[in-house]
Amino acid sequence: MMKQSNSILNRTPIVGIALFAGLYIYSSSLYPGGSQANLNTIGFDWVNNYWCNLMNENAMNEDVNPARPFAILAMIILCFSLAVFFIQFAETFSKNKRWKRATQISGILSMVFAALIFTQYHDAMTIISSVFGLFVVVGIVRELYLSEMVLFKLSGVVCLLLLALNNYIYYTTHALSILPLLQKITFAIVLLWIVGLNCKIILTKKKQLKS
Question: What confidence score (pLDDT) does residue 4 get?
């Protein structure tokens, strides 16, 4: 029974990310219209709409937004799944107890605040989540640097550069027109990277059980 529970928990991030992707696509199909490029567009513009637009009470064209509950559910599922991933990553690969706890606690707090970005405190939640997220990223990068997982090291650098570019554009507003599309590309690459790492966690735990 314990092994079965652990097996389900190990796969939670992958299942959660898949559910998030499905709900993201579904909620985007419900979005009435309007984007930062054109307030009068019809439907969700994958180039000019942000993910957060789907969680607003009203679309940018001021119509009531029926996508909101599904987008919020998608965000909650994603945040829970990533919190589980951060806990498992640190538990599996962190040898230092302090780094392990720092990564796990920061990961949980980052996701709690990220799950609240649909509220009126969007900007504050984004900033707080990013601060705790920085500690998580440092913890993961540290463990990857100490490991022999070369592919994940290199792909991790790509993820870090994309996240840094997103934050630079968001906070400076330079080249803001490309941010919605860049956000989606970053989402896809980072989540695929996490899925790959989660598969590595599953394989590592299987080896540990056999040894």
Answer: 54
